[in-house]
Amino acid sequence: MTEETFKSNRGVFDAVVFANKQIRQRFYRLGLEFSGDGAAAFAQTRPGQFAEIDLSDVKLPPKEEIAEDLQDSAERKVLLRRPFSFCDVISQRGKTRVEILYCALGPATLRMTTLSAGNSVSVIGPLGNGFQMPADKKTALLVSGGMGAGPLIHLAKAITTEYPQVEVTAFAGAKTKTELPFEKPLDEISRQLGFALHEFAMYAVESQLATDDGSIGYKGFVTDCFSQWLGQQRSLSANDTIIYSCGPEAMLARIAKIAEDKKIDCQVSMERMMACGIGVCQSCAIKCRVEGSDEMVYKLCCKDGPVFDSREVVF
Does domain 3-127 have CATH number 3.90.870.10? Predict the structure, then answer.
């Protein structure tokens, strides 16, 4: 998407909630529907882009339903919009529906859990620059950590739809089984066949799980699982392959190093506090290299990213 298209598509729109499903403890999947100009704008959303949602007027859950570790923070005022990427976008019959994977971890996301069908929220978007799929690639490897899974689920759908000739494999990691942001891992037989997660299997994408404590899948970091798998792929061509990753910054740094060592192109989705989402507040700076020199510059996660070439980012 060009800068001109990005600017012309974004706007402030009202969205109506059509679903807000709890998929496991603290993890939810929120569905928003746009009509009119909002539907046209969000129909163009690419995986990795995001939106800023106003949750300032959304009520909190009853106090007895708020986890003890969130009781103190729950009462804080929500003054700024919150950024969220998408795990799915569907446009049909003049309406566009987007789905957002989120975790109830603070005053804003706690409020999100009380949204129900028919509620309306104000949304700014679509914002940022998403993942790009070079035409010469034959293999796409998706590596997520924790809540980084959302935009990669969306990316898996986009690649398999738009580039059916590309072979896609996904890797997902978390500290423990209960912190995997998916509805439910598939059964042991499915995992042995290479399909660990329904969210990727529905697009015929093989997936592997890793948990730090070994409660399911590979025991250890997802980066180690990925590196081990990559080392076993004797027929994989670096020139024909691209890595996409989203998750904690330490994980992205490790993925970037693996990609550099293997000489594989890699795109990473960075995370920063993004107060405005449009490059005005300058609060989301990312230190980046200038190609062909030793110079360093700061780019904005919300405007220049959140997706960057991994070789560009100074971790």
Answer: no
Task: Assess whether the region 3-127 and the region 139-271 belong to the same CATH fold.
Answer: no
pLDDT in tens, 182-216: 988 888 888 888 898 999 999 999 999 999 999 99
> What's the whole-model pTM score?
0.94
Which residues have CB under 8 Å from 109's CB, separation 6+?
A: 82, 102, 103
The ranges assigned to domains in the chain are 3-127, 139-271
Q: Is 127 helix (H, G, I), strand (E, B) or coil?
A: strand
Residue at 238: amino acid letter: A
Q: Rounded to an integer, what distance in angstroms lies between the CA atom of residue 245 and that of residue 279?
A: 23
pLDDT digits (tens, 9 = 90+) for 167-187: 999 999 999 999 999 988 888
CATH of 139-271, one of 3.40.50.1240, 3.40.50.720, 3.40.50.300, 3.40.50.80: 3.40.50.80
Compute φ and ψ for 270, nearest 5 degrees.
Answer: -85, 160
Mode of pairing for the β-strands spanning 206-211 and 218-219: parallel
Q: How far apart are CA 55 and CA 154, in angstroms?
A: 24
Query: Distance between CA 26 and CA 23 in Å, rounded?
Result: 8
210 is written with which tokens?
A: 């890793």
Q: Supply the DSSP string of 3-50, one letter for each residue.
A: HHHHHHH-EEEEEEEEEEEEEETTEEEEEEEEEHHHHHHHTTPPTT-E
- The stretch 268-288 carries a mean pLDDT of 92
